[in-house]
Amino acid sequence: MREVVLYVEDHPVNVLLMQTVFELRPELDLVVAVDGQSAMAAAVGLHPSLLLLDLRLPDCHGTELLERMRLIPGWEDTPAIAVTAEAEFMPAGTSFCDVWHKPLRVPTLLTRLDRMIAPKGRPGDAVTPRRSSSFRRTTFAG
């Protein structure tokens, strides 16, 4: 079964960067939502292994969205990363497990992604980078 990552981001350039990064991880499916409303709509039937949430979304703050997502059955413990340009944002007092500050650097992003999505049964193992045309993108418009 393929791992799914839900990325909530409204800026098209940031989405394009993340989609490009995920092309280097063909074993992962990236689902993109452009705002809180479309993220909640995408959540129906989705069981992501990782949540990547921008904090400044057009219809809500990422911390508010994460609180709503935590109410979805099975999502209580899904790892969530704040992806933000807010230099001073710290995850204290939230259920974010980490913060990835923009601008994102591809090598660092790949290393962090590999740490978060380790192969099942071997925690901490990194995924071997490879290119493939099997990458699947799903985008939900807001």
Kindly list the characteristics that best describe this protein.
27% helix, 142 residues, 4 helices, globular, 6-stranded parallel β-sheet, 21% strand, Rossmann fold, alpha/beta
Structural overview:
- The protein is of the alpha/beta class and 142 residues long.
- The chain has one domain (3-122, 129-140): 3-Layer(aba) Sandwich (Rossmann fold).
- Helix content is 27%, strand content 21%.
- The chain has four helices and six strands, in the order βαβαβαββαβ.
- The protein has helices spanning 12-23, 36-43, 62-69, 106-116; strands at residues 3-8, 28-33, 50-54, 80-84, 98-101, 137-140.
- It has a six-stranded parallel β-sheet, sandwiched between helices.
- β3, α3 (62-69) and β4 (80-84) form a beta-alpha-beta unit.
- The two termini are 28 Å apart.
Q: Could you write a compact summary of the structure shown?
A:
With 142 residues, this protein is α/β, with parallel strands linked by helices. The protein is built from 4 helices and 6 strands.
